[in-house]
Amino acid sequence: MKPLLEHKVAVVTGGTRGIGYAVVRKFVEEGATVILCGSREETATKALARIKEEFPTAEVDAAWPRLNDRESVRKTFDDIVKRYGHLDILVNNAGISQRTAFLEYTVSEYDDIMDLNVKSLFVCAQAAAEIMKAQGGGVILNTSSVVSLYGQTTGFGYPTSKFAVNGLTKSLARELGAYHIRVNAVAPGVVKTDMVAALPKEVIQPVIDRIPMGRMAEADDIANAFLYLASDMAAYVSGEILSVDGAVVI
To answer: Looking at the annotation, which residues are catalytic?
Structure first.
């Protein structure tokens, strides 16, 4: 069977660990050339070495642009096009979470989470869309969250940023559709990642108890959703927020 992403070039931000790394692996398995982006050269090159060890013949590279800096992102994306000829898929996955109570929340914390979780998506999506419009199409995928649909009991900044991701996704799907650019988001539930592992058991266990499937998602469960939306199987799917949460009851 032909690989689903054969001859495609994809950029995955936040691609050094967790969901992002699982997406990189999945895309590589399905024939894509993948550029994984990390926040630092050290982490990006370390993740690149892991991927190359597992997939020695894969076309994969690393980059570490400042995601909230338009010129840094544009230069990185332009360099990718110069090297590989095109840019077909952007996965905006980089993000941070916070659990600070509202009355203790600082302006600095709010700025930090909106800067990475929202502003960087705008910057990266705009740079990618310019390239995709010129080449006749492409796919932009964003990482949202189940809390974007229901909120959460503490750490309001995270669901606020993910509500914004949903709005950006639906709006860009409508605006960019004329250029054959599809825009969708994946909204994971509770996933076994480093971010979740850092949360106390008393926070996580009650959430697991509300998942009818009785378990947290694996990173590959989420990566499969990104693969579907990136592939031609979803050729007429745009503006969707795809929940992958085991039917969690909030």
So the answer is: 158
